[in-house]
Structures are given as structure tokens and as C-alpha cells.
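ASSEMBLY PREDICTION REQUEST
Request ID: AP-0331
Submitted by: J.K., bench scientist
Number of chains: two
Total residues: 628
Priority: normal
Notes: Please return the full assembly, not individual chains.
Input sequences:
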Amino acid sequence: MSPPALIAVDWGTSSMRATLVAQDGALLAHRAGGPGILAVPAQGFGPALEAVVADWRSRHGALAIVLSGMIGSRQGWAEVPYLPCPAGQAELARAIFRHDAGSLGQVYIVPGLSIDANGRAPDVMRGEETQILGALSATKSGDGTFVLPGTHSKWATVKDGRIVTFATYMTGEVFAALRDHTILSRLMPADHAAINEPAFKQGVAAGAAEGSPGALLQRIFSTRTLGLFDKLSAASLSSYLSGLLIGAEMAAACSGKNRIGHFHIIASAPTLTECYKLAASTLKLEARVAPDDCAARGALGLARAAGLIESLKS
Amino acid sequence: MSPPALIAVDWGTSSMRATLVAQDGALLAHRAGGPGILAVPAQGFGPALEAVVADWRSRHGALAIVLSGMIGSRQGWAEVPYLPCPAGQAELARAIFRHDAGSLGQVYIVPGLSIDANGRAPDVMRGEETQILGALSATKSGDGTFVLPGTHSKWATVKDGRIVTFATYMTGEVFAALRDHTILSRLMPADHAAINEPAFKQGVAAGAAEGSPGALLQRIFSTRTLGLFDKLSAASLSSYLSGLLIGAEMAAACSGKNRIGHFHIIASAPTLTECYKLAASTLKLEARVAPDDCAARGALGLARAAGLIESLKS
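STATUS: Completed
Returned structure:
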């Protein structure tokens, strides 16, 4: 078995996940459950990291530590400037940020990416770039479309190994705000049980139907009227609304000038992955599921490209 | 001066407004501030109405009382079935619902309208049909497009005196849910001060720009990134978001197959009317403001068509 070479830490707003990675790319061990950056007081990032990785370090030597995610934001350990798109492994490795982590020595923070082109609003990601590179490496291709579903879903287009463009859809958070804080919540049972497949698919089709952006404001209201007219049961309304928003997101990301035949889902939660697969099949799109631990795979590639693993071996 | 002929009551979920109307259509007196239907216990509707109109009745005799709005819903005094579109004054007058109001005698409840056509989700209104008829009577025309902006904005198309189609946009409620219950709220100052005109207009243009329904989920997120990139001040973000949603609604209602050159605003609040006028001018549309008290004007027309005033005179 190849010896450990790297500790990859995906450190986001509300969670932290550390992975011990071998020189040959094998993922040797995982530790989830560390605190998200919002739960860590200023000056607390070093101790929080040490609590999770100290014994790996004492057992395997001074392994390189690569951090990705919101840990590189203004609210994190050190603010690392966004790198503008297009950018791939080479650009991100060159811009990797060396941070003095006290007793842990140096740690390396991956920059996020930004888009600030004329004619559209700016957009940003932190952490997803590393996951996308990890998912890309598993495809054995330099091209692809990747979605990271969730509170703020991100769709990214990769060409020749570089992330050329991406867009964030506030789908998950809009869903939660509508479900919990509008008249729709009065119609929906309080327990958010398993997804109702037919209602979800009906929502996907309705959300993906042609129309202008404002049509979504009308379709959201139709969740209420379909309930009032007994065309959907109260228990299925939340599935319908979820499908409506995901269908609208997927159609916007995969059709028109963005037309594609398949895309890769970078999973964060199994339920969400199932929803996106179901939405894709409803819209006759092919969804492939990226392997787990894309963040660690992406961090390994960046560490290699940045010479962090080589230098440890010498 | 023409003698009083009618008491028109616009009785909605959260408010009640009664108007004393003369035989010639003059609006003699108003009383706002009565309880909305949700604040009235079962069996309480008669006493609540009597408290507001009793002295008009004792002074002017047994004037006909015409009620419109959610008072005719399942949560109201008596559930009056929706009338399907197309429907105008004649159809609504024929379907007006005679309800035994105890010591007040008979009252008349205007039915709401529904659309349940193939190929689209059903939609409903209660109360707006009466306001639209009132606004229509002031235009001296049988045709027009009318918007009732608000929590659930309604756009209606009138042809030859009949409401032929309408659509509800959940604009106001989506705005409030996003402003108060998503990550966007952290960026916005807590006091929702006066509208920032340039930011509102920028939002209108962005919301009305071409795109698919899912594009709205991306544009909503851009409120955050425009703030992060200092392209909009924190104080202006809520105006931008408001413009974004109203612009999307207005473009959906007024362009494409719905293309129109002007429309009528039926006002519920002066601020909202100003916002819709500003959005219209941004989108090069002409917005005309309907007179106040469209509900009372509409109720008068319905009372005449239903013979309620004639019969009182005889």
C-alpha cells in the first residue's frame, strides 16, 4: 500500500471533512464532523484543525495539509483572493495560498473562483472548484458539465481541463424559504417525508416548461391552486414544489445555448442526488454520479501540480 | 345629491373596507379598519359587519349590502363557488350569492373567478373580479389589462367587458420570504427604508431580461454577489431584489404572446403603485392608475345588473 502523502480538508460554512490520501491517490481514512467555519471563533482555526488531524501527523510525519472551501473566505482562516475563470488545475495550483498555521507549520488554501464578465452579474465559488477537479479526474476526460446540488446549486462547464464558466442557482434555499415561510407552508404537512415521485416529476416537467423568468413566480403559486383544486394531495405538494424548482434550474442550465446531453452530479447528500437523477430522467437527460470524496481527489491533484507532495518526498 | 343606494364591502383576509354608495355612483363615505376574515370567529361575521354598517342602515333604511373578497371563501361567511372565466358583469351578477345574515337580513356575496383550462395549472381570484369591473367602468372601454400588485399579484385580461384570463404571481410573498428568511437578509439592513430608484430600476431590467424560468433562481442569487462585489450598496440590495421580481413578473405578463402597450394598476398601497409605475417606465410600458375604490364601483355595477338597487326603489 502506498504511504500517506496528504491531508485534504474540505472546510465549509457548516461542516469540515478531513481525508488522509495516499501517494497513489488511495483515500486511506476520513474524518467528518469537525466544526464548520461559522462555529469556530477567530484564532480557533489552528486548534480546530489540529484536533482532527494531529494523530495522523504524529503517526505519518509532516504531511501536507490542503484546505478548500469557505475556510479561504473573509469569514475563514485567511482571505484568499478569488481566481478569475477560466481556471483549471494548473492555475489553481499556482495560486494556492501558503498560510502559517502555527504549530501545524504551513497549510495550503485553495483559492475560490470568480466570474465577473460584462453583461452578467458576478458569481463565485469556494470549495466547489476542488470538487469539480476531483470529479473531472474520475471522468478521464477534459470536458464536462458538473452540478453540485444544494442550498446554492452550482453548474460548471469544463473545457480542456479548465472551468470556463459557472452559475449559481439559489434553488435549495428558495425552496426552504417558500416551504417554511409563505402561504404554501400552511398547505403542507409539517413532516417533510420521503419524496413523492409522481408529484416531483410533475413539478419537474412544469418547472422546465418554456417560459420567461417571471413565469416561475406564477408556477410557484400554482403549487397552492393545485392543492386547492385537489389535483395534488397535501402530502405531495412539497415534492411538487421541489420538482418545480429543480426542473426550472436544470432546464436553464442544460438547454438553450447551454444544451448538453449529460452531466455529472457531485453529490453532497444521497436524497439530493436521487432527486437530481429523477429530474434528469424526467427531462431525458443523462446524469452520471461522480465518485465520493471529490474534494480529496481534487486536492491531491492540486497538491501534485503545486509540487507539495514531491517536495515532501525529497 | 343622489340618495344612498348600496353598502359595498370589500372583505379580505386581513382587512375590511365598507363604502356607502349613492344611486348615481357617488361614493358617500368610507369605513376601513374592520377585521379581516381571519380575525373573525365563526358566527362572528354578522356582528362584525353590523358593527361597521349598522348606523348607515338605521339612517338610510335597508340598503343592499354587497360583499366581495375572501368573505366568500371556505374560511369566510359562506363558501360561494367560483365562476369559471370568461365572465363579466352579467355572469357575476347572475351568480351573486344571497346569504341570510340574520338581523341584517339578506346580504349579497360576489363569487370569485377560476380558470381551470387544459395545459395550465388552475388559478383563482376572490374580490379582484369586483375591483377589475370597477376599474373597467372608469376606462369607458370594454377591453384592457389590469394588474393588482401585492403579495399575490394578479394580472387580468378583459375583452368585451369580460375577464377572459388571469394569472397570479407570488411576487410580493416571494420577495418577503427571500428578504427575511435567506442568506440575502444578512446583507440587507433591517429597516426597509424608501425604495432606492436606481437599484430598483437595475433590478427591473435584470429581472425582465430574456431567459428561461430557472434563470430567475440564478438572478436572485446575483443579489448576493452584486453586494459582495460592491456593485450595489447594502442599503440598495432590497430595492434591487424587489425590482428583479417585479420586472420578471411584468415582463412575463406583458410580453411574448401577452404583448401589450399599456395596462391599468389597481392600487392597494401607494408605495406599490409607485414601484409598478417605475417598473413600467423602465420597461417602456405605459401604466395608468385606476381610481381609488374600484371595489365599491364594481359592486355598484353588479348591484345594478343584479337588480338589487332597482328592487329597493320599487
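REVIEWER COMMENTS: Residues 237-254 of chain A form the longest helix (18 residues).
SIGN-OFF: pending second reviewer
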